[in-house]
Write a structure and sequence with these properties.
120 residues, two-stranded antiparallel sheet, mainly alpha, flat, single chain
Length: 120
C-alpha cells in the first residue's frame, strides 16, 4: 500500500507504480529558471581565476585526478542514469581506468557530452 498525494491509499501494483512515478517525477524534474534569475546567479561578485590557474584548467584530466575523485566519494550512493555505481568503478579500476580516462577527456576537450551525461 502507498498513499497518493491526496492521502488516499493505493493498493494495486499499477496504482503503486503510478504514485511512485509521479512522486519521483515531481522530485527530480527540472526547475525552470528565468533570465533574471540566471543574471542574479552569475552576478555574485566572484573574483576571476588567475592566468596561471587557467592554464592548469586547460590540461587534460589525469588518471590520478579521476582515481582521487572516485576514492574520496561517499560509498553506497545510487548509480546514475548509466547504472554505474561507485563500487563498480572502484572494483574494476585496473581494467577500466584507461577507457574511463579516454571518455572523460573526450567529453572535456571535445565537448562531446550526451544529454544523459549532462543530467548526471
Amino acid at each position: 500500500m502507498i498513499l497518493d498525494k491526496n492521502g488516499s491509499p493505493q493498493t494495486s501494483s499499477q496504482d503503486i507504480l503510478h504514485v511512485s512515478a509521479e512522486h519521483f517525477k515531481s522530485k527530480y524534474d527540472t526547475i525552470p529558471l528565468s533570465g533574471e534569475c540566471m543574471k542574479r546567479l552569475m552576478d555574485c561578485n566572484l573574483s576571476t581565476v588567475p592566468d596561471a590557474a587557467n592554464l592548469a584548467l586547460e590540461e587534460p584530466i589525469t588518471l590520478e585526478e579521476i582515481y582521487q575523485a572516485i576514492k574520496t566519494e561517499k560509498p553506497h550512493k545510487a548509480p546514475g542514469y548509466d547504472g554505474i555505481c561507485l563500487e563498480f568503478l572502484k572494483k574494476t579500476w585496473e581494467t577500466t581506468k584507461e577507457d574511463l580516462l579516454l571518455i572523460v577527456n573526450e567529453m572535456y576537450t571535445e565537448e562531446n557530452i550526451s544529454y544523459y551525461q549532462k543530467l548526471g
